[in-house]
């Protein structure tokens, strides 16, 4: 059995549930530990009583070190700060041999066990961004992506995990500073800093908007394991933003169509349980700015204006 953990609040609930259901569809040999980052998410997740899931509240999880710096971080920054702590909590509290962290906006198209098995006897699994050259942000955002990371309960695994936790508690912010960015730039030198590090070679693990241009996902020779729906958001109930990278029509059909349909299903299910709140993280339309038409024009010229009506995404 494989152990996974993830974290999200009520604004990410539909995405977190879609990730869970995609994982469940691809494998039954798993257990997922979900850290609910607000009470709304915790109450609803508890009510759902999901199979193969343990829900953990902030009250259960947060320790003195995290609480001491919580007020210094934005909501997103605090989630990044907590990432290594969630993995550590799972391994130590539930006496796990290993645990794999998953971003809540991943979606599985294949069994991720093949990625973990690739580690062999190594203790830490990293996934590279594998940027398409035009989008290379390695110098500021990092070589590796905190999206799918495995740590084994070994000396090497826990040494790296404990170091990372302390580093994130010390500094974890949403800007580049002194070679650091969030929880991610810390990973850049891990193949030299720590023993037992394996960098994922399977190209189907870690496909994302910043590298999908390199692959033919429709080819029978390409084994897609998961896609990272980075920067996907609902602007309104019927309009979505797919991010700031070029996406061809084929990939929108293969990736974003099933994802949007699944999110809509999750939203309908949640509304049947609690119609008083929105759990889809609808960002809403921003107030008009005089530069908006110029920005839209520039994005269209670069072919990265990825704003669509949901009907367009989901139509046959």
Explained architecture:
The protein is α/β, with parallel strands linked by helices. It has one domain (about 1-315): Spore Coat Polysaccharide Biosynthesis Protein SpsA, Chain A (Alpha-Beta Complex). Helix content is about 40%, strand content about 15%. It is built from twelve helices and 13 strands. The strands form three sheets. A seven-stranded mixed sheet has the order 3-2-1-4-7-6-8, sandwiched between helices. Helix 2 links the parallel strand 2 (about 30-35) and strand 3 (about 55). Helix 1 (about 15-25) crosses helix 10 (about 250-275). The protein starts with a strand and ends with a helix. The mean pLDDT is about 95. This is Glycosyl transferase. InterPro entries: Nucleotide-diphossugar_trans. It comes from Methylophaga aminisulfidivorans MP.
Label this structure with key terms.
316 residues, Spore Coat Polysaccharide Biosynthesis Protein SpsA, Chain A, 7-stranded mixed beta sheet, 3-stranded mixed beta sheet, 12 helices
């Amino acid at each position: 059995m494989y152990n996974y953990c993830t974290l999200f609040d009520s604004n990410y609930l539909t995405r977190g549930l879609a990730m869970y259901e995609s994982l469940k569809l691809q494998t039954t040999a798993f257990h997922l530990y979900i850290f609910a980052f607000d009470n709304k998410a915790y109450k609803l997740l508890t009510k759902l009583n999901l199979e193969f899931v343990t829900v953990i509240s902030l009250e259960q999880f947060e320790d003195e070190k995290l609480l001491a710096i919580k007020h210094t971080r934005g909501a997103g920054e605090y989630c990044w700060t907590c990432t290594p702590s969630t993995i550590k909590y799972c391994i130590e509290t539930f006496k796990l041999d290993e645990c794999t962290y998953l971003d809540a906006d991943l979606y599985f198209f294949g069994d991720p066990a093949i990625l973990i098995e690739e580690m062999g006897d190594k203790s830490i699994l990293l996934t590279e961004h594998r940027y398409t050259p035009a989008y290379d942000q390695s110098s500021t955002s990092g070589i590796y992506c905190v999206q799918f990371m495995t740590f084994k309960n070994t000396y090497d695994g826990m040494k790296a995990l404990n170091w990372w936790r302390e580093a994130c508690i010390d500094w974890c912010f949403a800007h580049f500073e002194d070679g650091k960015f969030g929880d991610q730039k810390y990973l850049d030198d891990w193949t030299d800093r720590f023993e037992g590090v394996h960098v994922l070679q399977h190209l189907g693990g870690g496909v994302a908007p910043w590298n999908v241009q390199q692959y033919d996902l429709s080819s029978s020779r390409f084994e897609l394991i998961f896609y990272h729906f980075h920067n996907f958001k609902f602007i309104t109930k019927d309009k979505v933003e797919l991010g700031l990278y070029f996406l061809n029509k084929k990939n929108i059909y293969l990736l974003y169509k099933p994802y949007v349909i699944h999110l809509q299903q999750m939203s309908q299910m949640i509304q049947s349980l609690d119609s008083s709140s929105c759990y889809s993280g609808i960002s809403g339309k921003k107030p008009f700015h005089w530069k908006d038409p110029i920005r839209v024009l520039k994005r269209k010229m670069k072919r990265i204006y990825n704003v669509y009506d949901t009907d367009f995404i989901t139509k046959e």
